[in-house]
Write a structure and sequence with these properties.
single chain, 509 residues, mainly alpha, 3-stranded antiparallel sheet, 11 strands, elongated, disordered N terminus, RNA-binding
Length: 509
Amino acid sequence: MTGSSGAGYNAAEGIPPKKGNRFMNVRVRYAPSPTGLQHIGGIRTALFNYLFARSLGGKFILRIEDTDRERFDSTALQDIYDSFAWLGIRWDEGPDQDGPHSPYFQSERQASYVAAAHELLEKGHAYECFCTSDRLESLRAEQSEGKSAALGYDRRCRDLTDEDRAQLRRENPHPVVRFKTPLEGDAVFEDMLLGRVKRKNKDISPDPVLLKSDRFPTYHLANVVDDHSMEISHVLRAQEWLPSTALHILLYRAFDWEMPVFCHLPMVMGKDGQKLSKRHGATSLIEFRRRGYLPEAVINYVALLGWAYDDSREFFTLEELEKFFDANKLNKAPAVFDYTKLDWFNGNYIRECDDTRLLKLMTPFVEDAGIRATAEQLQQALPLIKERMKRLEEAPELLGFLVGAPADYPAEELIPKKMDASHTIRVLEGVVGLLDGLSARSDEENEERFRALAEQLDTKLGNVLMPLRVAVTGSKVSPPLFGSIRLLGEEQARLRVHAALQKLKSMLG
RNA sequence: GUCUCCUUCGUCUAGUGGUUAGGACACCGGGUUUUCAUCCCGGCAACAGGGGUUCGACUCCCCUAGGAGAUGCCA
């Protein structure tokens, strides 16, 4: 890899997207840094990039921004692959999907950044800075204390003489390269979503670092160099990047490169209106997986964060989104992540899920909870709990009564309203007789028999079934009773009813 | 502090000068039902405020307020 003249990719001679023809050759990228787990906000950004590309017949590229070797985390890298594999989102070019602009790890493109930095140095758009981290730190401390107007680097090394530099290099042989932010003028660009955004150059970060002392680039440099060399046509990223876009504009200008089209997506917030973070709930995709969300629910919900198709439709498959996505329908305002609505989507997808697949998805959750159930049992249980689950993680608690004893419950739970213990005892004693052959009978038939029993005991059906339900499941809330007993087995049910009777009797003393 | 962006029901949103401001989640009622859930019906609830422009503003412009983000040898 020898920078712009290296083999493998051409950093300097990237073909600029043709003006007025931008949608003809759409190339977008998602550029995560492997420093942490994939955040749901990042997923949203990736999704929108992917959909944008797909809807326009363009290419979606994955680029790993691993220029911070101190925070690099290989689990985080794996998490990127796992996350998108789970979602079913694939890139056209990326680390594991070779393309014309390989490599797709920034750490492997280092030479091109060094070359780019040198180009800027030569053109007079950048300079070497010998200030130590310590000095910068104390500078920052001073500035924040004395609420001074100017924040940031004080440009001490901006106008060094050759002599100064030679001298300083002896003390610090590892200078950084800083951008020479113009003091006058403006940086203006046309955001696809936001329209014209203008910033005075003097308000832009004063001389940010482009090349670190370890010769790795900062985000600003690497991002611009790669977007250019990879012929990225559109940059869709979260609005938190908006402030640094002005700087990027200046960099494109300094390199004399054509700019991609920018589109700054609204951010994803927590309930309190702050950037979505751990204290709001799950934020990493893997947590959503672990809680039992289906990928299609996550995709569907997240797609609707800052985007809407029309005034009524809200269910979409990935394939449909690929067709319908339209950047013109993007919203500008930040969106609050609503876990409740995600649950609602997920419940819908669970209900619509094919039983075979659902069984497969559900099994690990059940097993992890220590429930010993055969595949057949689970299969039979499925229809009973399917429409009661919002998340797969709820399966174990819905099925809990199948394993070991039912949850312990107070004897009072057995007694329906307006009834007493002895009355309830009579009910349960009557119920025992109906247990025989219950499994073989249809629900309708069973219901008839219990109804008859209720009449005989001069009470309502509910007052017969509720004590039985509590006796069998340990709870007033359960999946349909007859089906549950069928799963449990008549014998086990009988034992539980007897246990319940004991409870009631000891209550009477 | 400075800069930038944002502002329709609690939340996600539709709306592109003339609408009883629509839908969804949540919530509250009611119905179906062996509990719960599902399902069905109904209800509550919004254009941040002030100026313009216009015959007419949620829609266009300005200001104010509020919110958010950025201000690193992190991305």
